[in-house]
Design goal:
By secondary structure, this protein is an all-alpha fold. The protein has helices spanning about 45-50, 60-80, 100-105, 110-115, 120-145, 160-170, 175-180, 190-220, 230-275; strands spanning about 55, 145-150, 185. It has nine helices and three strands. It has a three-stranded antiparallel beta sheet with strand order 1-3-2, covered by helices on one side.
């Protein structure tokens, strides 16, 4: 028979763990069922909003289109309706009266060009019709889809100016605000399509006008060499020069916005792949 030894005192009860030393198991953070999105933080949503791409039509572009589209339309009609639109014929007065002056400066638009069947004039007028259709698509889309900017809706895009930002923030009032206010087309509302159409039309206009000058140069200035320099400057160089300067500006602005859109799209794609 086995007996236990007697202890001089009773054994103390087992000590309970101290509250300060108690081990606390952290509960897992709730996660959204979608890949790569954590419900405990809205950083993904905020980041997506901050990097969203949008197109802000340049006020200079809109002003240029408002002036140039009617002129180009009339020019195309003048060429298409020859000889009835030429001086002395039924459709010349009053709509095509200014083209009598230009036809005297540039013979390709005058009687000689018509008699000699200069094909370049009709060819560039055909290109005018295509460009006008593209510009109208862009202009109507920008005005119809684009939402007016406000202080809570910041302006983005290469076409946004400082004056437009000030007008959107309410710092400029009245006429200044009306002239400089901008409209924003979001990426998911068709901004990419509008920018691509505008870029294509601007490139076409620039290339066609450059070809117009080069054709005259390589033909020995056969259509304009009879002019004095003053007439050539004010009725040929300056008017046609606008169709080089403004399309160059538009090509740059649209091109920069296309690059920005590609950069934003690439960043989003890289983030999505990383989250997966």
């Amino acid at each position: 028979m086995v007996s236990t030894r007697n202890h001089p005192t009773d054994l103390p009860p087992p000590s309970s763990p101290s509250p300060s030393k108690a081990v606390v198991t952290p509960s897992p953070k709730p996660t959204n069922t979608r890949k790569g999105v954590t419900a405990s933080s809205g950083s993904s949503t905020n980041e997506s909003s901050s990097t969203a791409w949008s197109h802000t039509p340049s006020n200079l572009t809109l002003a240029w289109l408002a002036v140039s589209l009617p002129l180009v339309t009339m020019d195309t009609l003048y060429v298409a309706l020859r000889p009835y639109s030429m001086p002395g014929n039924s459709l010349h007065w009053p709509l095509f009266t200014p083209w009598a002056i230009y036809g005297a400066v540039d013979h390709s638009y005058g009687v000689r060009g018509w008699v000699e069947q200069d094909g370049f004039t009709a060819a560039q007028a055909t290109m005018n019709a295509v460009e006008t259709a593209l510009y109208l698509f862009y202009l109507i889309g920008a005005l119809r889809i684009g939402g007016a900017t406000t202080a809570a809706k910041p302006i983005k895009g290469r076409g946004a100016s400082k004056a437009a930002a000030a007008a959107a923030a309410g710092k400029d009032k009245g006429l200044v605000s009306w002239l400089t206010r901008a409209r924003v087309v979001k990426g998911d509302e068709g901004a990419a399509q509008l920018v691509l159409v505008g870029f294509t039309a601007a490139i076409m206009t620039l290339a066609k006008t450059a070809l117009y000058f080069l054709n005259e140069y390589f033909s020995g200035f056969s259509n304009i060499s009879h002019n004095h320099f003053t007439s050539l400057l004010f009725f040929y160089i300056i008017p046609n020069g606008f169709w080089v300067i403004l399309p160059t500006y538009m090509t740059y602005v649209f091109g920069q916005e296309i690059l920005e859109g590609l950069k934003v799209g690439g960043s989003r794609r890289a983030g999505a792949i990383k989250d997966e």
